[in-house]
Design goal:
Number of domains: 2
CATH topology of the largest domain: BirA Bifunctional Protein, domain 2
CATH architecture of the largest domain: 2-Layer Sandwich
Oligomer: single chain
Strand order of the largest sheet: 1-2-4-3
Number of helices: 14
Radius of gyration: 26 Å
CATH class of the largest domain: Alpha Beta
Structural class: alpha+beta
Largest sheet: 4 strands, antiparallel
Shape: globular
């Protein structure tokens, strides 16, 4: 049994984007169901009728009072029993609906509120859909894109970022003291065993563990497994590397379009750094920072070192600022530039940087003045 809170920044940036309407995510879930020949209906709280996609979107999009434009409006969860667990419990959709309702009660109770109040499933606004099929991904053993063998039933949940009264913001990607994701996952696993029975080798000489003990046991298993996976991360296939490099080519081209030609990044060098860092999250976060700097008209100094380490040396910044990465602007001759730096004092460097910054200001403004359509295209590419 596996439970996950999807982070749109690292998984499904486009289909699980949660800053606006839930329409895109809901349509994706409906499309996946219909592609597998399944009924695209959603269930929710105990006793509530099934909902259509349109009703789900209206329900979630109407529960955003108090949220700002750039705040997350909803979150996506995945509950995924193993094929063996599905066979053990009979792959019964009604039983899985009941299980999901129990998990959502645990989801609500897992939030730690400042006033000490405990929430329950009735405080949530949510809907879920059951999918029966999965397709192989690049990291799976089968042919990518083909249907996986065996029972692959899993549940997708979409839950509002506000409680039903629209007074409390509920962010499951917050800090552990607010929402502990390991504990939530452990509760979801424990609930499956409580509801359907425990599988595997059981020690009948010992008493059945309490719910609290079972959750603690599952939390330890999850933590240990995550640490092992981190140490034994599977190497990327050639196909995966090619796909990542193709996306990097697109991203670097987009980034370069926001910089002077003299400041362009070499896509091959960027890909070399990506390979050295095994395409990790730090690399992508740093590349995103470089692009955001470019959008503001700011050039990131020592970009390849920055990509490789995720850190920028302040001393290096000053040297590069004054002597290498900036073209000599109008109003400040090369001779003046060299003379001011000749003393080697921090003050001289600082004065030069200030002059350079003022001289570059009109250009920075020009780089930042883009139509809303262009900005939206950039955002689409990032998803």
């Amino acid at each position: 049994m596996y439970a996950k809170v999807i982070n749109p920044k690292t998984n499904g940036k486009k289909v699980y984007d949660n800053k606006g309407s839930s329409l895109r995510t809901t349509n994706y879930l409906v499309k996946e169901a219909k592609a597998a020949g399944e009924e695209a209906t959603f269930f929710g709280a105990p006793g509530s009728p099934n909902k259509s996609a349109e009703e789900v979107v209206a329900m979630l999009d109407g529960n955003v009072k108090g949220l700002r434009k750039d705040d997350a409006k909803f979150y996506s969860l995945v509950l995924s029993p193993s094929p063996e667990e599905l066979a053990y419990m009979g792959n019964d959709p009604k039983a899985l609906e009941k299980y999901t309702q129990n998990v959502m009660d645990d989801y609500a109770k897992n939030f730690t509120l400042k006033n000490g109040k405990e929430l329950s499933e009735s405080n949530l606004v949510w809907a879920a859909i059951i999918h029966q099929d999965r397709k192989n991904r690049g990291t799976d053993d089968g042919v990518q894109g083909e249907r996986k063998d065996g029972l692959q039933t899993h549940i997708h949940v979409t839950v509002s970022a506000r409680d039903a009264e629209q007074k409390i913001t509920l962010n499951p990607l917050s800090t552990p003291d607010r929402f502990n994701r390991v504990q939530f996952q452990a509760k979801a696993v424990a609930q499956f065993e409580i509801q359907f029975g425990r599988m595997g080798n059981l020690d009948l000489t010992k008493p059945e563990p309490t719910r609290k003990q079972l959750i603690a046991e599952k939390a330890e298993e999850i933590t240990t497994k995550a640490a092992a996976n981190k140490r034994e991360k599977k190497p990327l296939t050639e196909q995966q590397i090619a796909a990542k490099d193709a996306r990097l080519d697109t991203q670097v081209a987009r980034l370069n379009s926001k910089l002077d030609a003299s400041q362009h990044l070499d896509p091959e060098r960027v890909k070399e750094v990506a390979k050295e860092r095994s395409y990790d999250n730090v690399f992508y976060a740093t590349l995103g920072k470089i692009e955001r700097n470019a959008e503001k008209g700011t050039y990131t100094h020592n970009p390849y070192d920055y990509l490789a380490t995720g850190q920028v040396s302040k001393a290096g910044e000053l040297r590069m600022d004054a002597t290498k990465n900036f073209s000599t602007p109008a109003g400040l001759s090369r001779t003046q530039n060299e003379q001011e730096l000749g003393g080697g004092t921090a003050r001289a460097i600082e004065q030069t940087i200030n002059k350079l910054s003022r001289a570059m200001a009109p250009k920075s403004k020009a780089q930042d003045v883009r139509s809303e359509a262009e900005k939206e295209q950039d955002r689409e590419h990032e998803m």
